[in-house]
Specification:
Two copies of one chain form a homodimer. Chain A is of the alpha/beta class. The first copy, chain A, has helices at 2-20, 24-40, 42-58, 63-69, 73-88, 127-138, 152-168, 184-191, 206-215, 238-250, 266-279, 289-294, 303-307, 323-333, 346-355; strands at 96-101, 107-114, 117-121, 142-146, 176-178, 199-202, 228-232, 259-265, 284-287, 298-300, 314-320, 338-342, 360-365, 382-384, 392-394, 400-411. Chain A is globular.
């Protein structure tokens, strides 16, 4: 199968070269056509999704996993309109990043260029297939996709629809390609295709990330865990704090930008725990001794708990004497995703925003906003928790590289 | 030794955190103080360099390698004044990359932040030690350096001087650190320190790059080979073409931005080969059959030759019927570093500049300009031949990441 993967990869790379020369108008038309084909293909996509769901039930997938896998007419419409949103974004390719004339007269310009082939390994949400493919084609990159086996039939139909969109405007179909062999062995081979793949975005849990660290030879952008903290300062508006904590923890607990850890200033810890007991009784709280002493609802937490991404209605809670202690706790346990403070004190907010080392830092806002659509990117390929190339939600710009264009009149170096 | 490396790494990471909070003024002062200490330490550095050179001669290093290793008063002064140039560059940290107010009132800003710990593996030029360390400290990053064994004594003295500069302004010495165990085993361990190193720049030959692909678990920016082409179009000014080719090939043949491959339009191939025979008789030419037919100086070339980075007074040469054939040859053999065209035809130039996929594309200028100093970066950490994060010469901006700063008034997600 590795042989087949390499051959498919070569065709994807060739398609990327064609795509890199396509005009903005053609790429916009391709993404729009893909949206139409997705709508037209909805019956086949839903039939394939039924098959995946049946296999999933037989294989004992959890209810949460089945929910993530499930498509319906509304979700397909959301995928199609998501593509139209991406089509309407302005072209990142050719954008001038900097321009300079050197003392010797050389004109030096840096312009945005496509990356080439973007590889993505992801789990069972089929909408990732169209989100990623749309962003890639819009930015003149080929999308080389390796979804999970549990969503294979759905992904095959979605990719077929998207490919029809490419074909409708005369672009090569394999600028969007799906790896249909979902074996672990092929995933490893995929991570090692550095002659084909210019960047790999692994969207998955710790075992995927460990495997990627061990085996990948292609450059990687890590879409890692979110152990997101919310720190409630002594000068917080407690109504606002309650609203933000409840939203960050319970609005969608299974996603990476949900709150997993609550840090309370000792002066407001008691009243906040009382409020949260009433406002989100369904959330289990695991805390340090001080939190346990303040509320009988708080069960003991271990260091492993403080480091965990629960993706569930569970949160850790610690009580701290001051901002320094809050910063130290966050520095120790942060996964570098999103960290928030609630305070009315601008100096305290400023220090928090300046000193916390994470992809996103928030003041008086829910961590749930750290998302490509919410932050104006239209959609996202993932949320980078590494510092290299892209950090936080990755939209079109994250799918570009730079070229130096140097124009002279015969200059030579002395 | 791996244990020691990990401990040293932890101290470097801790120093990076301190450095990330240092003001612009303190970082400027540190780099200036490092320049002074380098000048003051010149006698000790030169004595250490004598030792390295003696070992190198005993170990049978080539004359070229010894030249790269050798320091003298002028080279140390160049290192010190290089640091002063870097100190004078404007601070990249905190620069606002984009700013936006969302419909819900959230203020969203992206600001430049340090990467953290920058690891560099490099060969025997000791000036790399101060160039890299200066750029890192200027951009609030720690420099974790692993130079070659042949330059160990020189590097130890240089790093000691630079560390005195840090100490002089109250910054932790280990924001610049040298791995003194230069074994292969420790190099591998270094590539796997992903808990400490935020980005690794390997500056070296194919074996280092292969080893890095196999073993690295830290994110990498590849400083790869330069198989740089110069294409002489039929509409080129032949005087200019001759000047550029001679400069690109002979001004400093041992560096990555030297020309390695010449591509000649058939209409000017004969006269160009005659000119080059006179202008650079010392350069061996290996060519295709058409080039061989035009000049008795051209020896046969293999595909391996067309792909090779000679770093020597050797060049391949091919004769092509048109721009498409030139683009196809370059696409096949390019290492993605720097590719140049000489032509007076603006349409031909435009197509070349738009279609060639390399870090730098040049029109009517020598490939030798693809260099951090020449392009206005002050100095360079290396020249990236990958598309991720940074491409081409890497200066201060390449040593930064981004943070999203999101400010609200209690917004929650609905």
């Amino acid at each position: 199968m590795t042989e087949d993967l390499y051959e498919l990869g070569s065709r994807v790379a060739e398609s990327a070269r064609v795509l890199s020369r396509a005009s903005d108008a053609v790429r916009v038309a391709a993404v729009r056509a893909a949206a139409s084909e997705l709508r037209a293909g909805a019956p086949m996509i839903l039939a394939a999704n039924e098959k995946d769901l049946a296999h999933g039930r037989d294989a004992g997938l959890t209810q949460t996993a089945l929910d993530r896998l499930r498509l319906d007419a509304a979700r397909i419409e959301a995928m199609a309109s998501g593509l139209e949103t991406v089509a309407a974004l302005s072209d990142p390719i050719g954008t001038v990043v900097s321009t300079d004339v050197r003392p010797n007269g050389l004109r030096v310009t840096r312009v945005r260029a496509p990356l080439g082939v973007v590889g993505v390994i992801y789990e069972n949400r089929p909408n990732v297939t169209s989100d990623v493919a749309g962003l890639c084609v819009r930015s003149a990159n080929a999308a080389f996709l390796r979804g999970s086996s549990s969503a294979l039939a759905s992904n095959q139909q979605i990719v077929a629809a998207l490919q029809s969109g490419l074909a409708a405007v005369g672009l090569p179909r394999e600028a969007i390609a799906l790896v249909e062999d979902t074996s672990h062995e092929t995933a490893i081979a995929f991570m090692r295709l550095h002659e084909v793949i210019d960047v790999l975005v692994p969207r998955g849990g710790p075992s995927l990330i460990a495997s990627m660290r061990e085996h990948a030879t292609v450059p990687v952008i890590l879409d890692g865990d979110g152990n997101c903290h919310v720190y409630i300062d002594k000068d917080a508006d407690l109504d606002m704090a309650e609203r933000i904590v409840v939203n960050a923890k319970t609005q969608r607990p299974g996603v990476c930008n949900a709150m997993e850890s609550l840090v309370l200033h000792e002066e407001i810890a008691g009243p906040m725990l009382d409020r949260l007991g009433r406002a989100m009784p369904q959330v289990r709280l695991l805390g340090d001794q001080r939190a346990q002493a303040l509320s009988s609802r708080v069960e003991p937490a271990s260091d492993e708990d403080f480091a965990r991404e629960f993706l569930d209605l569970i949160s850790t809670v610690v009580v701290v004497p001051d901002l320094d202690a809050a910063l130290a706790h966050i520095e120790r346990f942060s996964s570098g995703h999103s960290e928030a403070i609630v305070t009315s004190n601008p100096d305290v907010a400023q220090r928090f925003l300046a000193e916390v080392d994470a992809a996103a830092v928030l003041h008086n806002a829910s961590t749930r906003f750290v998302d490509g659509s919410e932050l104006g990117l239209g959609a996202e390929v993932g949320i980078s928790t590494q510092k290299l190339h892209a950090r936080g939600p990755m939209g079109l710009e994250a799918l570009t590289s730079i070229r130096w264009v140097i124009q002279g009149e015969g200059q030579i170096r002395s």
